[in-house]
């Protein structure tokens, strides 16, 4: 909510988003709190009025992530067309980026790469379909009972419609914004969603190697420094000649 307020302020603003990201949809569909959602009830409601949800409500939902996923779909087509050579390229990129990924995400991508690589001799990509789908619907916090992909996607769409920063104006001066986020944040996952620096070009993101709660308890100095630095930037940029 603070990020939405900052995006609507008509003047340069000192702002430090703490342990948040570009949308709240991942909190409820992938993060720890997704386990608190009554998915069975949501699916039952969805099944009762499927036509209403799919024909009347869903066309009204606009998510900035849709365009991103369409681009990823095209990338997937290219990946399949160039298989297995594309696996070698993917492994090379994955090795370069592994150090920057949170541990949980790195483990997920490693397992997917391993699964794909082990089946290189099989030209039929259908064997890898379930593994690749983990990139979109993976969440260790969802109940063990299978949940309709449409229900999860609809939930994510609703949350993106209401909270995605891509729907709102950019802050007047993003260079004043210093976000602090936790690499191991299980409440606010950041993978497979548009990054804050893509939505607010010029802002800075600082990482702490903690989880959501431990970052608050043990890294308060990082948050305080970000606040001070953000104020100093505004003073230097807009008030130094006052």
Structural features:
globular; single chain; 12 helices; 242 residues; 2 strands; mainly alpha; two-stranded parallel sheet
Unreliable stretches (pLDDT < 50, length at least 5) are: 101-109, 115-138
- Note the quaternary state here: single chain
For the termini, the CA-CA separation is 32 Å
C-alpha-based Rg, rounded:
20 Å
Give the number of helices.
Answer: 12
Strand order of the largest sheet: 1-2
Average residue-wise pLDDT: 78
Structural class, by secondary structure, is mainly alpha
Helix content: 40-55%
Shape call: globular
- The helix/strand order is HHHHHHHHHEHEHH
Strand content: under 5%
Number of strands: 2
Largest pleated sheet = 2 strands, parallel
Structure summarized in a few sentences:
The chain is mostly helical and 242 residues long. The chain contains 12 helices and 2 strands, in the order αααααααααβαβαα.
Describe this structure in words.
The structure is a single chain. The protein is mainly α and 242 residues long. 54% of the residues lie in helices and 4% in strands. The chain has helices spanning 2-8, 25-29, 39-48, 50-57, 65-81, 85-97, 103-117, 129-137, 149-163, 196-199, 212-218, 220-239; strands at residues 178-182, 204-208. The chain has a two-stranded parallel ribbon. Helix 6 runs antiparallel to helix 7 and helix 7 packs antiparallel against helix 8. The longest helix has 20 residues, at 220-239.
């Amino acid at each position: 909510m603070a990020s939405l307020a900052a995006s609507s302020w008509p003047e340069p603003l000192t702002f430090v988003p703490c342990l948040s990201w570009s949308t709240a949809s991942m909190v409820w569909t992938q993060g720890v709190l997704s386990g608190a959602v009554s998915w069975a009830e949501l699916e039952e409601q969805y099944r009762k009025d499927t036509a209403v949800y799919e024909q009347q409500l869903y066309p009204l939902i606009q998510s900035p992530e849709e365009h991103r996923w369409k681009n990823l779909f095209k990338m997937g087509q290219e990946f399949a067309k160039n298989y297995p050579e594309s696996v070698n390229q993917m492994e090379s990129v994955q090795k370069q980026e592994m150090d920057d990924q949170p541990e949980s995400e790195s483990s997920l991508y490693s397992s997917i790469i391993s699964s794909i690589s082990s089946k290189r001799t099989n030209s039929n990509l259908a064997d890898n379909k379930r593994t690749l789908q983990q990139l979109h619907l993976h969440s260790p916090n969802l109940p063990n009972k299978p949940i309709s992909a449409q229900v999860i996607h609809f939930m994510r769409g609703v949350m993106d419609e209401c909270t995605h920063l891509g729907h709102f104006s950019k802050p007047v001066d993003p260079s004043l914004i210093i976000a602090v986020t936790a690499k191991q944040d299980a409440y606010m996952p950041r993978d497979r969603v548009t990054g804050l620096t893509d939505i607010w070009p010029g802002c800075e993101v600082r990482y702490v190697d903690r989880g959501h709660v431990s970052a608050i308890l043990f890294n308060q100095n990082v948050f305080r420094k970000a606040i001070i630095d953000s104020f100093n930037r505004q003073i230097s940029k807009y008030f130094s000649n006052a």
